[in-house]
Amino acid sequence: MDGIAVAHNNAEVSAFGGNGSEDLYVRLKALQRQYEFLEIQEDYIKDEMKNLKHELLHAQEEVKRIQSVPLVIGQFLEMVDANTGIVASTTGSNLHVRILSTLNRELLKPSSSIALH
User: Where are the beta strands (DSSP E) in 2-112?
Assistant: First the structure.
């Protein structure tokens, strides 16, 4: 069939040459670019899933640590900033500690009893 011309709407179009092969080549290149883009996306998603699994394990360990029985009981002394404060532990030392984001800071008054992990 190579080289056979077909008359259509008073115009001659080749079955395997001319504009048809250029269109196929352009389509092939477009599909190759799309395929490469999808491969890049797949690699990114795989890396992101790996990172999220690592974060999940870390968060689960943190939850277990927070839910465990406190090691030391202390007394809240004062807020340093929005996320940290100074506490006095039962061991006799004053500590600069991070305050959990889930705690209501309005309830943290000087002399309040607190659990330290």
Answer: 5-8, 11-14, 72-79, 84-89, 94-98
Q: How does pLDDT run across 37-86, given as a tens digit for each residue? A: 999 999 999 999 999 999 999 999 988 887 877 677 888 888 888 889 89
76: closest CA among 108, 46, 40, 52?
A: 108
In the block, tokens 């389509």 appear at 27
Nearest to 94 by CA among 71, 70, 106, 78: 78
Q: Count of CB atoms within 10 A of residue 75's CB?
A: 14
C-alpha 87, offset from chain centre? 34
Contact 27, 61 (CB under 8 A): no
Residue 92 has pLDDT above 70, yes or no: yes
* Distance linking the first and last C-alpha atoms of the chain: 82
pTM for the whole structure: 0.45
Task: Give CA separation, 23 vs 17, 18, 64, 86, 97, in Å.
Answer: 10, 9, 61, 72, 67
